[in-house]
Amino acid sequence: MKAIVSVHGRYHAFELARGLHRRGLLDRLLTTYPAFAARKVMGPDVSLDTIPRLEAWRRLYPRLKIGPQPDLAIARAFGRFAARSLRASRADLLIGWSSATLEAIAPARDLGMKVVIERGSTHITHQTEILRDEYRRHGKEFSATDPGIVERELREYDLADAIAVPSRFAAQTFRDRGIAQEKLIVTPLGVDADRFSPAEPRPAGAVPRILFVGSIGLRKGTPLLLRAFARLKEKAELHLVGPLEANFAADLAALPLENVVMEGPVSNEALLKQYAAADVF
């Protein structure tokens, strides 16, 4: 069996593709990353098809703000690129990231491939509802996911042979919306044990250290985390690693922050040390 991994960006797709390649199961990786960047992770002998202009568009838009928000246009363009890239393949399986695979599903089927949609979160409708409600509770305007993206994902869910999700909770949100259990694959995200390893045991009596890594704001549930941690503040310390969401500074200042350490964004090497030093993450 040979598989194509198709991703508009990186996510955990490069690690998935690398694992398949090591086992002789990867046909090729399709990505918006330039080839030189992908090969830093994948190695020199992996077959790649890349379209880096889409990655440049995605990264430059927040700075230049020229034209409409590009997520939908990028998803469509990458889907068409993936469909074209299938023509020379003899793969048996297409693993495509949600919202950017729709155009490739029919061509893949015509070539005899099965299609797995990789969805790294809950059902997109559930995600949208949860975020909308959280923003409302905080009196903030929620910039909803583009309806075109939602429509694309719903069609992908329907057309795919299977949908891969990272947790049983995520799978439940699909079942709640009518997706059959038989169509769902729960694959918890792994860890690169060559890079991440535990530190030496901490001294007896050391204050337990809790680590959160991600953007600091409503989207990742920071207010809920801080309110929950406030019940433990005398017994532990909480380290938050990641960038502060726009317009969240005032909200953060109003939340309980005793024994909370704001680390901000850190380098990859520093992140390894943060995980090694944590008792819970």
What does this structure look like?
By secondary structure, the protein is of the alpha/beta class. It has 2 domains: 3-186, Rossmann fold (3-Layer(aba) Sandwich), CATH 3.40.50; 209-277, Rossmann fold (3-Layer(aba) Sandwich). 40% of the residues lie in helices and 16% in strands. The protein has 11 helices and 10 strands. The strands form 2 sheets. A 7-stranded parallel sheet has the order 3-2-1-4-5-6-7, with helices on both faces. A 3-stranded parallel sheet has the order 8-9-10, covered by helices on one side. Helix 4 runs parallel beside helix 5 (102-110). The longest helix is centred in the first third of the chain and has 15 residues, at 71-85. The chain is globular, with a radius of gyration of 21 Å. The relative contact order is 0.09.
